[in-house]
Amino acid sequence: MQEPVSNFVKTNGIRLHYLDYGGNGPELVLLHGLTANARAFEGLLAAGLAAQFRVITVDLRGRGLSDKPIWGYSMHKHAKDIIGLLDHLQLKSVFMGGHSFGGLLSIYLGRFFPERIKRLVLIDAAARMHPNTREMLQPAMSRLGKTFPSFQAYLESVKQAPYNTFWEETMRSYYQADVQELSGGKVKPRSNPRHIRLAVLNVLKEPWPVYLSKQTKPALLLNATEPYTLNAPLLPPENALETARQMPDCRYEAVAGNHQIMLYGPGARQIAEAVTNFLLA
Q1: Range of 130's domain?
Q2: Quick one: which of 153, 182, 165 has its CA closest to 233?
Q3: pTM of the model
Q4: What is the CA radius of gyration of the chain?
Q5: pLDDT tens, 154-203?
Q6: In a domain, 246, yes or no
Q7: Which among 50, 161, 183, 218 is least surrounded, fewest beta carbons within 10 Å?
């Protein structure tokens, strides 16, 4: 897998950062989870997606190297950022996918901008997650706003998170992109917890069952069934299947791992194969 081209585009009033991994296949735009960044999918690329698609990933507003406005974290604002990126890249329509929050944003894009979407890939995203989702996300959210004495100290901290049940080197680039370096070698996560809370509040305002029922594009929903935190999956299979049934044309597939590590190791290999089969059928 080659190192991606890093670039910025002015879209919807902000400066948005994106990565273009190149390749001669059809374009696949992948949108990361709530507190993640554009490097979140490198486990999937290494597992086979890089050979099949021109993968483009994005730092959503408020994350990574993209601008971090004080306000503007609605789904509509996020969606318009992505449409501006597609316009900049002169991409009339693409395969669109996302993990968790990025999967919901993909659903939103499919509902309101269907002419720009060919098919949808939803990675552990559904209208209803686990009822204790907020509590289950606390180990991931707790890193935000903290300063760590070094990147190595930060890395050791995230390795101890309950959802990181194994480690592979493709994870390093994701965590490297997660932090900014401060004076004296200290590091701090780039995402502002206030912005993340605003994004969550705006997600909860949307009528997701309505959006699902009005989807016109075929979709693939990939569900991680292993425990994330609190000894339970973040997206229980019954909730994932409920979302799949609410869509006119959606396939469901369970994959190895939990909500986080599904993007690496055995889960990544399953996802890469399932996505390739679905999109290139």
Answers
A1: 5-137+191-279
A2: 165
A3: 0.97
A4: 17
A5: 999 999 999 999 999 999 999 999 999 999 999 999 999 999 999 999 99
A6: yes
A7: 183
